[in-house]
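pinned: reference chain
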Amino acid sequence: MDTSLMEKYIEYLNDIVRSKGKPRAPMMIVYDSFKGHLDESIKKKFWDSGFDLAVIPGGLTSLCQPLDVAINKPFKDHLRKEWHLWMADGGAGLTAKGNLKRAKLSDVCQWVKCSWENISNEIIIQSFITCEISNEINDEDFNKENDEDLEITDDSDSDEENNESIDMKFPQAR
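pinned: its C-alpha cells
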C-alpha cells in the first residue's frame, strides 16, 4: 500500500461516513509504522476527515495490533480446516501431469467468509481490550452486565447490497 492508495482508502471511508447521514461516533484508525501510513499528507487527510490516527511503533505490531494479538490465529486455523476438508473430500483432483488442481475462487471465498463468521464478537472486542485500544475499557468494565454496550453491529440497510459496514460500540468513559 502506498500513499496514493491510502488517499483512495480515506476517500472510501469518507464516502461510507457520509452515506450514513447521521452524527458519527468518534473514529480511530490503527496502523503499523509502514511509511505509506506515516506520510504527512495522509495524517492530515485523516485528521481533516475526523479520524484519530494511532500508529503502532515498529517491532510492536505482534503485541499491539488486535488482528495479530487475537484474531489472525483462529481465523487462519479455521481457514486451514476448510482447506483440509476440501482436500479430504477430493476437491483438488489432479491435473494431466499429476499435480494437484488449485481451488476455485468461489470455494476460497466461501472458506474466507465462513472463517470470518467463525470469529465471535467477543474475540474481536477482547482483542481491542488486550491491546488497550478502547475508551478506557478495562477488565472491571468488561462483564456480562455491560455486554449489550460491547456489541458489534451491522448498520447497513437490508436493501443495500455490497455496502456492509461494522460499527464498534464501546461504553463511554466514566
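why pinned: The two ends are 38 Å apart (CA to CA). Residues 141-150, 154-174 have pLDDT under 50 and may be disordered.
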